[in-house]
Amino acid sequence: MEIIIQPTPEAASLLAARHLAQLIREKPNAVLGLATGHTPLALYRELIRLHREDGLDFSRVTTFNLDEYVGLPPAHPASYHAFMQEHLFAHVNVSPSRIHLPDGLATDIPASCRAYEEAIRAAGGIDLQLLGIGGDGHIGFNEPSSSLASRTRIKTITERTRRDNAYAFATPDAMPHHVLTMGVGTIMDARQVLLLAFGAKKADAIAAALEGPITAMNPASILQMHPVAKYLLDEPAAAKLTRLDYYRWVYDGKPDWQKV
Predict the structure, then answer these.
(1) Which of 41, 67, 104, 121 has its CA 20 to 30 A from that of 78?
(2) Which domain holds residue 77?
(3) Does the predicted model carry a pTM greater than 0.90?
(4) Is residue 260 part of a domain?
């Protein structure tokens, strides 16, 4: 694990965007696993700026999103299709044919999930998976008690997650109870994982995920087993880590070529 603590979400997001941009420049046909929600917004804004001002080229990049609500059409303003169009895809030169999200309108959900897994394999696997973390330690929509070997599938959202995500809907009752999500095993197959966490509300989940036991009760804890997992945290999210000073010392002592 590489734990990188920055003073603000913006500073952490700039580092994350720089890391993604470096991957795209080194591997123009990179396969990216993308996330939604508030956490990656500053990262996406920086990627857009790098595209517009520095020519960062997305034309050969392939993307796979973590999840989508069951029953929402892509044009629904609260769908993750719409989110990604608004906050990234409409502003860079990514090819629509290279964009993939789970199909929330699939009539055969198990078959659609199997097809999503096959599409990831056919693309050569995910080079870098971007993640946030829920206050209960969920990644994607893999809620506590999710199998740590799970693949893309349908999941029922907890009431806590529904409350956290209800802002995108006109009323809380309008929010679906089910989602399609990459599984924990799918996430673990990515060659790199980049997890962002900001704010004091994430501190307990981060402390448990990084320094606690590996357990399905905190799905993010399985990332302790990932060979290339990087965590970009702001100060409040990192505040409950017992080895906080050590993580800072390690990162500050890295040679420049090794830093994110």
Answers:
(1) 121
(2) 2-254
(3) yes
(4) no
Place of tokens 């906050």: 87
Is there a catalytic annotation at residue 226? no
- pLDDT tens-digit profile of 139-166? 999 999 999 999 999 999 988 888 888 8
Residue 93 within any structural domain of the chain: yes
Distance CA 105, CA 192 (A): 30
Q: Which of 46, 67, 127, 189 does the annotation list as catalytic?
A: 67
Q: How many domains does the chain have?
A: 1
Residue of 103, 127, 143, 234 marked catalytic: 143
Residue 259 domain-assigned? no
Asked if 117 is an active-site residue, the reply is no
Instruction: Give the contacts of 192 (CB within 8 A, at least 6 positions apart).
Output: 23, 127, 128, 129, 228, 229, 230
- How far apart are the C-alpha atoms of 8 and 6, rounded to whole Å? 6
| pLDDT, tens only, 210-244 | 999 999 999 999 999 999 999 999 999 999 999 99
Tell me whether residue 67 is one of the annotated catalytic residues. yes
Q: Which of 46, 103, 136, 234 is catalytic?
A: 136
Q: Which of 19, 51, 87, 138 does the annotation list as catalytic? A: 138
